[in-house]
Design brief:
alpha/beta; Rossmann fold; Arc Repressor Mutant, subunit A; 2 domains; six-stranded parallel sheet; 10 helices; 14% strand; globular
Length: 229
């Protein structure tokens, strides 16, 4: 655990959701809520004033209720690249995820709002982006893997069931150690599976290395691509 708490600024226009998020953060001693607000303009001001470690934001907020959270993440990538962003959304749309990761996957997370009820999952996502990692909601990865698997032309047909499990874990942002624990495999076995996956899918070997964030984006881009390209 860090010596000092992770400083969080919260942006959410729904009072009830914001209250739930406030309680999650208050119940985690490793987190500190330094500001909260209900619209995008106020959120930008608070980020500039508070200089947080992580921004926890709704994907849609006033004034336009469109994609404020995604655009904020893109702006912060340039202005304050060390700030992590966790985007909360009710939309299991891979397009939003790819847009979030367009300028890089490190320090970015995309979670469905239903995860707000799982304190451990939300806190883990905040901690992950604060340390430079990526987290993608498992439900979105499931949608992508299922859609890709239905295409008989897809290279996923060459993967074994275990390799499919490992690929899904990669796309969610899990490290080799986390994949090892989740699937009850040795770290060496995980490394062999990852190398085989990236070879079969014709992805860059360098992205199969231990560094998590670039390979998250590689896996998601592959899963979202049409094989008719």
């Amino acid at each position: 655990m860090r010596a000092v708490p992770i400083r969080v600024v919260l942006g959410e226009d729904s009072y009830l959701v914001r209250e739930g998020l406030r309680q999650v953060i208050a119940g985690a001693p490793q987190l500190e809520l330094v500001a909260e607000c209900g619209d995008a303009d106020a959120l930008v001001r608070e980020i500039e004033a508070r200089q947080p470690d992580v921004v926890l934001t709704d994907i849609r907020m006033p004034p336009t209720q469109t994609d404020e959270g995604i655009r904020l993440a893109a702006d912060l990538r340039v202005a304050q690249p060390r700030v992590g962003v966790v985007v909360l959304s009710q939309y299991a749309d891979p397009g939003y995820v790819l847009e979030l990761l367009a300028s890089g996957s490190e320090r970015r997370a995309y979670l469905l709002k239903e995860r707000v009820h799982d304190r451990r999952e939300l806190v883990a996502a905040i901690e992950a982006v604060a340390s430079g990692q990526s987290v993608i909601d498992p439900k979105i990865v499931e949608v992508l893997v299922a859609a890709k698997s239905r295409d008989e032309r897809s290279p996923l047909a060459e993967l074994t069931p275990r390799e499919l499990e490992v690929l899904a874990a990669i796309a969610e942002g899990k490290s080799n150690a986390a994949i090892s624990d989740a699937l009850v495999l040795t770290k060496r076995a995980v490394e062999k599976h990852i190398n085989a996956i990236f070879l079969k899918l014709n992805l860059s070997h360098s992205q199969a290395a231990e560094e998590v964030s670039p390979r998250v984006k590689a896996a998601l881009v592959f899963l979202a691509q049409s094989d008719g390209r």
